[in-house]
Each structure stands twice: as structure tokens, then as C-alpha cells.
Amino acid sequence: MTRSPDLPMRKLLILTYHRLDLWIAPQWFAEKLQSEFPQLNIVQHNSYEGVDSELSEAEILFAFSLRPEQFQIARKLRWLHSPSAAVHQFMFPEFVNSEVILTNARDVHGPVVAEHVMALILAMAKNIPADVRMQQKHVWGQEIVSSSSLRPREIAGATVGLVGVGTIGRGVAKHASAFGMKVIAVREHPERATPEFIDEVLPTSRLNEMLARADYVVLAAPVTSATEHMIGRQQLAQTQPHACLINVGRGSLVDEAALAEALRAKKIGGAALDVFDQEPLPAESPLWDLENLLITPHTAGMTDKLWERHYVLFSENLRRYLNGQPLLALVDKKSGY
Hints:
The protein is α/β, with parallel strands linked by helices and 337 residues long. The protein contains twelve helices and twelve strands. The chain is 32% helix and 16% strand. The chain is elongated and about 75 Å long. The two termini are 40 Å apart.
């Protein structure tokens, strides 16, 4: 069927402004979508300059963020896809209460972040950060390691405690299980079917119990009013002295001052953080100098296959959207995830 020249084409706007080049959609992304979906008018912008007119005509938006005043302009918007897993930036009342569909990229980032979590668990268990420091000082530290608390630990038989059993959490559970680790988790709805590779699910009201049992606590929960600073002094006091805290969710899940205090006092064995309240982490932050803290600069989701993974998910969802079929990775705007 030939489209009448009087009928405007449905518009998809790809808006990936970001300070990191990796997070900006490459040119081939829009070009490949255009060739696969010729019935759409696909426009890509890598800045917000002059984007208002495009927003006003867009039916579909692929973007990291959308401010309330921009949403007011986007009157034709029916579906917004976030290329990040986090969606708290969209949770303003006008959008939440609208009929616009929201999807995210949790299935793109989840498996990659789960790999990063396992790398952090192994690095902490085998004391790799201490080895790196000794290497930099040209110190052969075999005797130091054998006669101190730096002695490497086995992860087989250890317990992983998960906060968040979404794509990241399920991926961690799968990998941890393969290493012979036990996996327990807390979730808001423990009555739901227990995901594969998770041995036990507790309600969030029993978070302290999980913290007391876990050797490695992994935070992979979304940011909501219930999860803001969910790990503070009270929770850290429940952990075992050798336990390690790993955060790959969002920085605001953890009270960083309380964590720094616990690490200095050796009340917990260590921590590994990929996310922080303020990013980039300021040079004057006391977190940099804590020897029992491993810092990765929000790189858990980075992969050389990032945009190929985005394309697989988004093109499938675009096909479903145009055919009136249910979308993958739907976000419940009322719950925030």
C-alpha cells in the first residue's frame, strides 16, 4: 500500500545527549532502524539544541531523560524508551499519570552488570586490590598475605544476599550458583515464584536478617522512596565483620557517610561501589582513601557490544509496538520500576 503524500509519517526521535561518547547512539543505529522501518520518520539528535520542534511531533522517544516542561511539548508522545535501566528521572507526576508507555533497557544492561558483580566478588575474596597496591610498590607480598587478614577466601559455599531480583539480580544468582554459592534475596513481593538459582526469598521487612547471614551483599534495586538510603548505620551494624557490600544499583541506596564510618572501623570486611550519590566522585571524597573499598567509576554496564544489544531489544520492541503487541521491559510507572 502506498502512503498518501498528505499523511504525515509517524516520528521516532532518538535523543541521546550525554557527556560520555559511549552512551550516544552511533549513526548506524538510526540508519539501520530507518532501513528496517521505512514507514517511520526517524530523527536523531545528540543535543537538546533546537529539539523542541522535534519533540512536539514525536510519537516515540528514545531518551535518557525528559523534563516536565519537555513533556508538555511532546503532546503526540505515546511511548518512551529509556536506554538506561534507571527510570527515576521520569517519575514526575505529569508523566506517571499519563498514558504514555515506558520501557527501559534493563535487559540490555542486566547481564553485563551481573558479570561485573562477580568480578567484584572475586576481587574482594582474593584481595586483588591489595595485590595491585603491592605491585605498584614493587613488593613481593606473599608473607604479608599469608600472615594477615588479607588471606584470600573461597567463594564456594559463601552466601550472596541480593537486594533486587530483576535482570541484574537474577544474573548474579545464576553466576553465583555456578560458583557453588548460596543465594538468598529480599523482595517486595516474596509470594511471587522464586526465580531460578535463588535458594530463598525473604520479604523486605526481613532485610536485617538477610544482612546478618550474607557474606556478600549485592544491591541491585531501583531507586524509590522505599529504597533511598536503605543501607545505613543500623543496617551495616547487622552485617558480619567479614561481609562485603557491593552496590551496582544507584548511589542513593547507601548512606555513604555511614558506610565510610563502618569501613574505617572495620565493622564490615569491605565494600565495592560502582555508583555514588555524586558522580563523578569528587577528588576530595574520603571514599578514595579507604583501603577496604574498591571503586569502579560507574562502568558496570559498559560493554563493547552496548549498541548492538540496544538494537536487538529496541528493534524488537519497535516491531511489537507497530503491530500492537505487548512490549518487552515494560515499566510500572506507579511502582517506579
